[in-house]
Amino acid sequence: MNKTRVLAGMRSSGRLHLGNYLGAAKGMIALQNKNNNECFYMVADLHTMTTPFDKKTIRAQSIDVILDYLAAGLDPNKSTIFIQSEVPEHIELSFYFSTVVSLAKMTHLPTFKEKVRENPDFVSIALVNYPVLMAADILIYKAELVPVGIDQEPHLEVARDIAKKMNGTFGTNFPEPKRFTTKGEYIPSLTGEGKMSKSIEGSYILLTDNYEQIKSRLAKVPTDSGRGNKIPESGGVAVLFKAVEIFEGKEKAEEYKKAYLGKGIQYKNLKENLAKAIYSELKPIQEKRKKLEKNTDYVEQILVSGAQKARTEAQKTISEVRSKLGLNPSGVLS
Ligand code: TRP
């Protein structure tokens, strides 16, 4: 039986928070643990370079992300784990792809417009090419499943378009990749507004937070009097109920909701119990991370063999595509 290929790319913008962990890492781990999948997981450091970056920290940042994911449960014996720039074939494929993509389409994407708003003084060709490179990341492994958040859907649409265009024009056999969604994917911000995000202070819990830090972050979640005749669907209280459901189970959440409609809730207790539950899930991850941090050779070795494995697969696709495009498939002049 042919295995289903999975590819995910993690951005290297700082340490993981609960939103990334529940929304992305958990899904990636679930996919890796299914026998009929073959998973490729990479840090998208080339994508980091599409906006201003620091050459002094870029690789260390990638390693940081790898450590978080390894600690959370990615297993190098089951998944191919690597850093994008260490498999340069992605760049070659993205160039071939760029020949079938219109500039207008790329500049109209909501994700592009958002980045331009954030960095109006530096709109590079690399930034316009962001979705094309992402399509190359996925299609170079002919991956069919991509575990990413809903915000990445426009990019997947681009990848499907490129696959169709390439297949139609040149006779390649790229699949049309789909987004893989996890149940707990939308993790709301602790502020009660929008989604948990690293760039919004007070919105997140880090994977590395200790019990006291978690408690003090939860303490700041806005609440109400603790009772009412309708369960709040948005705002801080809704966030707390959702977090209770995720970390303490549906039953516990129902219990609180019932109390909310009846005798009322003591948020201090709720928050304290919730902090305990969150910490007990994070503690083993933190301990594993500490061990990995001390074992840099082991981590480097994972990345070397990951890149080797990835390159072997990537080179197969590159030589196929070169041949379909009328180029020398080996890429070497004879
Ligand atoms: N654009 C993705 C993000 O911002 C990161 C990414 C790069 C990615 N290449 C990818 C995700 C390939 C999935 C597949 O999260």
Number of domains: 2
- What is the architecture of the largest domain at the second tier of CATH? 3-Layer(aba) Sandwich
Distance between the termini: 38 Å
Given helix and strand content, the structural type is: mainly alpha
* H/E series: EHEHHEHHHHHEHEHHHHH
CATH topology tier name of the largest domain: Rossmann fold
Number of E-type strands? 5
Please tally the helical runs, counting DSSP H or I stretches of 4 or more residues: 14
The share of residues in helices is 40-55%
- Main sheet attributes: strand count, strand direction, barrel closure: 3 strands, parallel
Q: What integer is the average pLDDT?
A: 93
Q: What percentage of amino acids are in beta strands?
A: 5-15%
Describe this structure in words.
By secondary structure, the protein is mainly alpha-helical. The chain has two domains: 4-185 and 295-324, Rossmann fold (3-Layer(aba) Sandwich); 211-291, Tyrosyl-Transfer RNA Synthetase (Orthogonal Bundle). Helices cover 54% and strands 7% of the residues. The protein is built from 14 helices and five strands. The strands form two sheets. It has a three-stranded parallel beta sheet with strand order 1-2-3, with helices on both faces. Strands 4-5 form a two-stranded parallel ribbon. Strand 1 (4-10), helix 1 and strand 2 (37-43) form a beta-alpha-beta unit. The two termini are 38 Å apart. Tryptophan is lined by residues 7-9, 11, 44, 47, 134, 137-138, 146, 148, 152, 155.
